[in-house]
């Protein structure tokens, strides 16, 4: 028998733990003080704070009935006459390349061609909305609208 191998036949009793609720002593695993240490505590949901930070559409001003839908970009016949040659194909992509339109968030917007000005060149219009006056002017110049 060695000194290090001796064990007690009756080990010490552990001291009785105190603390309200449970067997964990004093603060019962709740840390110290504050909202989280209290009985019946309720923590505000974190998601609610994010929702509150999002801007609302309150009081959109005098144009409250204005649509959220993206409006068509307007191009006149006068600018088509100036930037396109005879026999050219006028598409939204061609209008961007000609510098008459700009991409919005890297997307080519809808285009509507209005009959402002006159057209003498024969052009083919594709993928664009067109007013009735502009359609008549294109057809009168010998062009087509698809």
TrEMBL record:
Pfam families: Ribosomal_L27A. One of its GO terms (biological process) is translation. Keywords: Ribonucleoprotein, Ribosomal protein, RNA-binding, rRNA-binding. GO terms for molecular function: rRNA binding; structural constituent of ribosome. Residues 75-146 form the Large ribosomal subunit protein uL15/eL18 domain. Residues 10-27 have a biased composition (Basic residues). GO terms for cellular component: cytosolic large ribosomal subunit. Residues 1-42 are annotated as: Disordered. Binds to the 23S rRNA. Belongs to the universal ribosomal protein uL15 family. Part of the 50S ribosomal subunit. This is Large ribosomal subunit protein uL15. It comes from Candidatus Taylorbacteria bacterium RIFCSPLOWO2_01_FULL_45_15b. The lineage of its organism: Bacteria, Candidatus Tayloriibacteriota. The gene is rplO.
